[in-house]
Fold each of these.
Amino acid sequence: DAGVTQSPTHLIKTRGQQVTLRCSPKSGHDTVSWYQQALGQGPQFIFQYYEEEERQRGNFPDRFSGHQFPNYSSELNVNALLLGDSALYLCASSLADRGLQYFGPGTRLTVT
Amino acid sequence: RKEVEQDPGPFNVPEGATVAFNCTYSNSASQSFFWYRQDCRKEPKLLMSVYSSGNEDGRFTAQLNRASQYISLLIRDSKLSDSATYLCVVNRGNTGKLIFGQGTTLQVKP
């Protein structure tokens, strides 16, 4: 039974560039949530996708956008990267929008 | 003030010790509560849900006090493998939006 998978594992980008991160949920799950974790901090909720729609959004600017595909996989896009966007980006999947959330291994993004 | 607050530690304890972590949350609308464990440079993993009646899973006991908006985690007979960061998590109104504390770091020494 495959768990949550994310790609890529690591990424280095330059300020101003755009990045796309990908997530495949755990088998049987239909909801994907994205979190940003800065060094030494707990994860912060970015948004959640359920039935291919953004259902909840945290306090992140419009530079952060996402998408969910019919197979429940999801993408996180960040435009106009800032140095402060450097973080571990975590994807969590659940069954429906209120189920227990299980995290993928994350994508470590470094912006230089 | 952060919505979920934890003492970041680190807590350094010898093997076999009992250690307790505390967490407070500020939003009384919070309805679901969890402890997650995060190893260095890894993803958070669900340790246990926390129920009003208190619940136990082996060496781990979680307590919730809704009146004081306080959550605790007790680890008995600490093992070296318990060394990790423990994240206190609340779900406000069962929305699916998890709110994490900063995390408390535990180091268990031989």
Amino acid sequence: AQSVAQPEDQVNVAEGNPLTVKCTYSVSGNPYLFWYVQYPNRGLQFLLKYITGDNLVKGSYGFEAEFNKSQTSFHLKKPSALVSDSALYFCAVRERGEGDYKLSFGAGTTVTVRA
Amino acid sequence: DAGITQSPRHKVTETGTPVTLRCHQTENHRYMYWYRQDPGHGLRLIHYSYGVKDTDKGEVSDGYSVSRSKTEDFLLTLESATSSQTSVYFCAISESRGSVTEAFFGQGTRLTVV
């Protein structure tokens, strides 16, 4: 069974400081990994994904994430946070392979960026 | 934005009544999903579909059924609504043509069972 853990319910940072949102995963085989963001009363928006290749992936709005296979982690990062980055962030995993397209999500991390 | 429409967007219903939520897509994607979002639980998969009339259970499928008679429509039915099914429900679609693609989400349906 696949699962995702986001160990922090909340992350608070000052504007201009680096932002990190943590994610660890568990799958039987190799993973596909995703980050999504949700603004209040909205659906989820895709930020970035890891499929294969370079462990550092870049996505929308200046976000990036690093895949670490040995630590089974896929932490989301932004070098300089903005107040507008305040939102709910979800990490998701899907196991690589044919026939199973379940997409599992973590519980989410609320990010607050103070001015 | 991906062409996904959920209806209704808001609904209040009484305990014990059946409720059907609809997800309609215009992207011709093969895979469709229903999730529920609750504080502290993230998004939990209820059911998903990998083709017309092909569906499978997710992690919280009890009390829910689904149907997909056309590629574009995926219906979620609460057979006899309970207060524990008060939640925000999201539909998602995805496709895979030789490489993974991300899932796209609808705007959600807020369901209240009283």
